[in-house]
Write a structure and sequence with these properties.
Elements (H helix, E strand, L loop, with lengths): L5 E6 L1 H15 L11 H11 L4 H14 L3 H5 L3 H8 L6 H17 L7 H4 L7 H12 L8 H10 L12 H10 L5 H14 L19 H5 L16 E6 L1
Antiparallel strand pairs: 1-2
Helix pairs in contact: 1-11, 2-3, 2-8, 5-6, 9-10, 9-11
Bound molecules: iron/sulfur cluster (SF4).
């Protein structure tokens, strides 16, 4: 396996995206925050999902959104009310974070969640990951979702060694970003996250034999499952990545 400083792998990006999205349509994980494009609802879900299982978050998210359906209603809530709504998720700082976040949205953005990444990143507790997830899932913007899961899948596809720090590595960030489908970024990113969870999981043997992107994956070829890798020259619809950084 190569280190993350070099890549030498050609894949047909258009076909890769199409195969992944088509698989995603059949294997979509249904969470309540995925059935909305309301940026406030998605932002609250992302805050709740931090270091917390989706199954634990789902019922609390639904009650929370029912009680506080918008920024205005959340702005009127007391700290005690918010604590009572969220205490079962743990991480007490979440309440302070939400209060500070809402105050800044009201003060700096007239009560509207900003769409620009540079603005989102000024809000308390908004990481690059949360800003990208919000932009993609709320506004269908082609931001890459870069976390340990998407890094793991990408590392296997390109046969790159991954570490905890790889999500901050410029090569991984570019590889993941270049694969995002600019026409269907929301569907693409949902499918990638679902593939990482269901087919290419952490700490378990990847299920390469049922993987929709197996034919593009160097790891799969390494273990003898994949045939017919592209040896074609890169065209406008393909990416050729072979460099040292
Ligand atoms: S072929 Fe295997 S290793 Fe490659 S992405 Fe699919 S499940 Fe993961």
């Amino acid at each position: 396996m190569k280190t993350s400083s070099s890549v030498d792998h050609t894949l047909d990006v258009v076909s890769f995206r199409s195969d992944l999205i088509n698989w995603g349509k059949e294997h979509f994980r249904s969470f309540p925050w995925r059935s909305t494009t309301n940026p406030y609802h998605i932002l609250m879900a992302e805050v709740m999902l931090h270091r917390t299982q989706a199954s634990q978050v789902a019922p609390i998210y639904e009650r929370f959104i029912s009680g506080y359906p918008d920024i205005a209603s959340l702005s009127r809530a007391t700290r005690e009310e918010l604590h009572n709504s969220l205490y079962s998720l743990g991480l007490r700082w979440r309440v302070d974070l939400i209060i500070d976040m809402v105050a800044q949205i009201n003060e700096c953005f007239a009560g509207q969640i900003p769409q620009e990444k540079v603005d989102l990143l000024t809000l308390p507790g908004i990481s690059d990951y949360v800003a990208s997830a919000l932009r993609c899932f709320a506004w269908n913007l082609p931001d890459a979702i870069i976390d340990t899961n998407t890094v793991r899948v990408t590392g296997r596809i390109y046969n790159l060694e991954t570490r905890d720090s790889s999500r901050r590595n410029s090569l991984f960030r570019r590889l993941i970003s270049d694969l995002v489908d600019p026409q269907q970024p929301r569907s693409y990113n949902f499918a990638l996250l679902d593939l990482a969870a269901q087919v290419c999981p952490k700490g378990q043997r990847p299920l390469c034999e049922v993987c929709p992107v197996q034919k593009y994956c160097l790891y799969s070829r390494k273990i003898g499952l994949s045939e017919g890798f592209s040896n074609r020259s890169a065209t406008s619809s393909e990416s050729m990545i072979s460099e040292e950084i």
